[in-house]
Amino acid sequence: MAPILENKIPTARFRVLGRKDGLVDRVVQTIERQILDGRLVVGTKLSPEREFAERLGVSRTVVREAMRILVTKGLLETRHGIGTVVRALTRRELVRPLTLFLRTCGEAVSVEHLHQVRSILEVENAGLAARQASDADIEDLRRISAEMVSAAGDPQQFAVKDAEFHRRVAQTTHNPLLILLLDSTRDLMNEVRMLVAREHGLFQRVMPTHTRILECVASRDARGARRAMRQHLRAALAIQQELTQKAEGLDLNKKAG
User: Fold this and answer.
1) Could you tell me the pLDDT band of residue 96, with boundaries at 50, 70 and 90?
2) What letter does residue 86 receive in the DSSP assignment?
3) Which pLDDT tens digit goes with each residue over 141-151?
4) Mean pLDDT of the region 247-257
5) Full-model pTM
6) Looking at domain 11-86, does it have CATH number 3.90.550.10?
7) How far is the CA of 25 from the CAs of 21, 65, 182, 244, in angstroms?
8) Mutual orientation of helices 155-172 and 202-218 as an angle, nearest 10°?
9) What is the residue extent of each domain of the chain?
10) Phi and psi torsions of 45, nearest 5°
């Protein structure tokens, strides 16, 4: 992490804000913009509240509220004995808002929706992985695949390793945006994986396609890797649909009873 900067923030970084409604939002946006474009790097110590308020031409109350919002967003943090500093965002914090949005906006997400997204994203991930994989990437995928085999009798651990395998394929593309996009579906996919984890014969139904994906990546066969991933996702969808239909059947039976 970059060292904490004890010097004052140069005046040029900020322009004085007008005294209008929404000053708190404007202060938040001003500081946020400086962080996101790299002018305020991780570890930078912000000026004291009074000095900051004078520089921006707003009250200390406005600055205090803006800082509180930015701390809540995870962009700033208050360190005891140091002050307020720019904080490093974690991947989890970046993708969490999507999950919260889907849970609170009333939009139902079906297994078919997830399948569509995965087909767009993961099929191409597999192809790119085959083209971009380093020896270390392939070795790591082999390790995870072996751990999946070892976890064949432990449904929960198998689900964990399944998720790790797919994320490692995304990492093998060496494209941080693709990794981030896959992570945005992680919570939803974890729920689905736990739903199907105890399905009888799951290992026998999905492990062969994982092995085929690995073989194609290792042999640098991009077309084959895409095909194998597509086959895997179709097999996974079939299992998910079967379980969903069973669950709906149980619900109907309960209501009828």
Assistant:
1) low
2) E
3) 999 999 999 99
4) 47
5) 0.64
6) no
7) 9, 9, 31, 44
8) 20
9) 11-86, 95-256
10) -90, 125
